């Protein structure tokens, strides 16, 4: 069977599009736009309860290494050294956290009738979520796709957030 995970993480302005196709063993597609987006290539093995792959390219990308059950995903986004832990659970109201206590974000999503809505991050600095979920996997896997999208853009946008006037601090 083939279905999709699609929608937005964040609003029309400042948000990120999610457009992925799901099959019995894979999630492929794109998060973000054509220019500033990232490819999604994840292998999903429901029998072993494993989701593994990459978001972005081989060079400028992030690894995904997740263990999952129908009501919980736990694992690592972004590698052993500079990655973040993710732990989200439940089926209709999916909650949890990605990252640590200080540098991380909360997940608070509601699943109903093939849709998922809610929030990632806090009420002020977070992003809204409005997505259609996959029919191939439990809703928690679609929630993980939303978490990955928010995580990827937080990490990638923070990397280039420094600014310079070109003056080098000289008078």
Features:
mainly beta; 12-stranded antiparallel β-barrel; globular
The main β sheet shows up as: 12 strands, antiparallel, barrel
Mean of pLDDT:
88
**Cα-to-Cα separation, first versus last residue:** 65 Å
Strand content: over 45%
Query: Helix fraction?
Result: 10-25%
Order of adjacent strands in the largest pleated sheet = 1-2-3-4-5-6-7-8-9-10-11-12
Query: Which word captures the global form?
Result: globular
List low-confidence stretches. 160-171
The structure class reads: mainly beta
Number of strands: 12
How many domain regions? 1
Radius of gyration, whole Å? 16 Å
Number of helical stretches of at least 4 residues:
1
Task: Give the ordered list of helices and strands.
Answer: EEEEEEEEEEEEH
Draw up the topology in text.
Layout (H helix, E strand, L loop, with lengths): L2 E7 L6 E8 L2 E6 L6 E8 L4 E7 L4 E9 L2 E6 L6 E6 L3 E7 L4 E9 L2 E6 L6 E6 L6 H21 L12
Antiparallel strand pairs: 1-2, 1-12, 2-3, 3-4, 4-5, 5-6, 6-7, 7-8, 8-9, 9-10, 10-11, 11-12
């Amino acid at each position: 069977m083939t279905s999709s995970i699609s929608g937005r993480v964040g609003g029309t302005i400042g948000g990120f599009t999610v457009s992925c196709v799901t099959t019995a063993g894979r999630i492929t597609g794109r998060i973000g736009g054509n220019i500033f987006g990232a490819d999604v290539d994840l292998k999903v093995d429901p029998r072993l309860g494993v989701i593994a792959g990459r978001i972005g390219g081989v060079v400028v990308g992030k690894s995904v290494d997740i263990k999952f059950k129908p009501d919980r995903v736990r694992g690592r986004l972004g590698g052993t050294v500079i990655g973040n832990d993710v732990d989200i659970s439940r089926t209709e109201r999916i909650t949890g956290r990605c990252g640590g206590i200080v540098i991380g974000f909360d997940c608070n999503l509601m699943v109903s009738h093939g849709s998922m809505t809610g929030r990632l991050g806090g009420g002020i600095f977070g992003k809204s979520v409005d997505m259609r979920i996959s029919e191939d996997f439990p809703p928690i896997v679609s929630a993980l796709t939303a978490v990955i999208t928010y995580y990827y853009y937080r990490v990638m946008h923070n990397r280039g957030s420094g600014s310079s006037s070109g003056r080098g601090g000289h008078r």
